[in-house]
# Entry
Amino acid sequence: MSADSLRVSLAINGNRVDLDVRPHQSLLEALRDQAGLTGTKECCSEGECGACTVLLNGRAVTSCLVLAAEADGAEVTTIEGLSLGGALDRLLGQLAEGLVAFRTAMGPAWQTTTVVVMTEFGRTARPNGTRGTDHGTAGAGFVLGPRITRAKVSSDWPGVGQNALYEGRDLKPTLDTRAVLKAALSGTFDLTAAQLDRVFPNSSAVRASSGLMV
Ligand code: FES
# Structure
């Protein structure tokens, strides 16, 4: 340890780690450069984009704005800690297995099938008291099937920095769900815009997403 460095002790993803950090070094830099956890990304460096978000003692923070020295003694959870072997990893694995089993069971009928998977609730940016993120606003979903043009993300990522949140708490919506559902329905059943507006009443201002289906 050099004269101008400080030793901090962190519990990162459940493992006790001692790091020698500079007084003004960010937690983001310490995680990436010293702990080797590069799943935490640097982008804006101003607390706006959320690419560097980690959980600090269970609370979501933008690690580019937190000094590593401030985090001494804290529990830090990075994306690596939520991935392999974690609850999200397990649940997404079960979802994937279910979708593959469905596709297999459909047999030849799969060629005329489109599957939409959507979250029941939008998501908050921070975990609630039971460590969930339900009852928020924006969410995520998948559209799957042989008529999808190509694998792509059909939305923007506003980030989870405090200033990017919807009403200061939720992931901000950037795409109307009905636009995606209209595209999936029209691509599967060859419906007209007028028919789609009858499926989703009072939605004539929302056009089907283009380029989603062949
Ligand atoms: S890099 Fe930290 S919020 Fe963008």
Notes: The chain is about 25% helix and 15% strand. Residues 114-199 form one domain.
